[in-house]
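Apologies for my clumsy wording, but are you able to produce some protein sequence, whichever is easiest, and the tokens describing how it folds?
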Amino acid sequence: MRAALLIQRWYRQYVARLEMRRRCTWHIFQSIEYAGEQDQIKLYNFFGYLMDHFTPANSERNLISHIFRENEICRDIEWERYFCYKNIEVPELYSGPHLSFPLTVSNVADLVEAFKNKQNGMPSVEKSYVFNGDFVDRGKDSIEILLILFAFMLLYPNNVHLNRGNHEDYIVNLRYGFTKEVLGKYRLHGKKILKLLQKIFSWLPLATVIDQKVLILHGGISDTTDLNIIAQADRHKYVSTLRPPKRRWVASGGNSTAGRHKVNGRTDNSLQRHCSLAYNSPLRSRYNFQSRSMQNFSSKVNLAVEEELKEQRRMAGLSQSYHDLRSSLSSDSDSDNYETYEDDSNEWKQIVDMLWSDPMPQDGCIPNEVRGGGCYWGPDVTEKVLRRHNLQLLIRSHECKQEGYEFCHNRKVLTIFSASNYYEVGSNRGAYIRLGPDLVPHFIQYQANRSTRELTLRQSVGETERSALRALREQLFAHKSDLLCAFQDYDTDNTGWISLKHWATAVEAVLRLGLPWRVLRSQLVTTTQDGMLDYQGWLRELPITEPKTELVQQSLLETMYKQRSNLETIFRIIDSDHSGLISFEEFRQTWKLLSSHLKMEISDEAILDMAVSIDFNKDGSIDINEFMEAFRLVDRTMNLPSEPNHTKTDE
């Protein structure tokens, strides 16, 4: 018995240590992710400042002005032809599904089959779905995922609901990969696709209410959240939610509601999909039907189902012909003649809160300075908002959770996150929710990667921990100069040594990631002497391999490392034709814009030297992807052996 107790105690301590390592690793990933979001918002705020305070003739303002032309797609008559799928030339070699509108069940089943998606059950009249945002920027298949979701939404407009997430925003897409993905896959039509998706994203509902009791939205709420305001919001004007838009009215013709109708003194957008707050029909009858498998989905289509689909479309206001729908889109276009009113800051703030906010354990509501947008709200705010609207549960996403879901606020707020292996293979499970007639959530957890399911707890934690430490070392390396200055502030006698306590304080002061540096010390600092650290030697020994950049000044190189994501975002903006190439002059303008944002001086000579050094084929232009790859940092520890008896495979 004594031996059994000792073994049990040892095992509990072992599991507790693994859990501590896992949580610490999680904190690293999350802190770096949120710091990136904060940088993105700061950069866009800087762009907004240029637009608001500089004259149209200003060169820096001209570089980025095109990203603020939110309604360009509807004002330009030439864009109308891009709404018509019939005008797209299909190559003879194309062997995929050929779609026609309105869509049929067979069309969508063929589309899904073409994307090799054979899991988790298909939406149908009997099985409704709510997808809670962030459909893009989450991997290499975002566009395929969008096509499937849009196809099912058109097929079952009353049974498939898509909420907007904070990544359904073209400015965010510039940084997090979706823009690059689309342009890489569709070189001929990529620009058109991105322009259309800008508009589509702005029309996605902001929230869904089920049976008048369950509120589903992407981010969260605040102490000012009012669902009545959200339901009436003209959300389509928020093409990007990172900046409050100006309110416009059509001067020619004197009609301020072009293409819309007045009903009881209020503006009605005629299509149910235009509501910013969607209300799902009751769930009662949904579970009386047998769910169909993928194999039978195409073959068992009968007339009754097709008639039901027509009725579903009619009820949703989608019974118009393609020509009529296209005409309504055209009539909803903004005129070239418009004037600006004052910003509707309250409406905009509520939308930002719904897309960007996170819950916190303590009462109150404070700005979300970690992400840079939205707020942190407490249990008292949850109670207030739910009581005001007679709701019983708030379901949201926006935050990765280790088990795929997590309750908080007395189980009245539920976070659901469906992307498993989000930070690294083995970092987290994914989950989705089933709601029965009693509206009690039932959770289904999964791992999308087969190799992950075969890992032991120790292997999974070790794999994720190594990935997190690689990302953290890159952050440390990119801030070498700042860290050296911070260390020297504590080394008043210029000995080259500082205490480990001062090391931890200085690193946090520079990186501002809110990490437990003393806990991480043993994995980041390998050599000490009597509790003191040779900080210059430590900086030299950071296991990072630099690219070959002999022609680049060191100060410019460090700026490149620190501002890599911001720099790529500016490149994507300046590359207005989405060719993937920029000229030397555009390259110079990019760095000048970044230097204005950072309030630092970068000489034209240094920029030209860098441009020449990476113009590999000497054609006077720079490939954006090659440039970013040329300055990618590599952690030498990636070559070290990992946990035994495990071979890592890509997801």
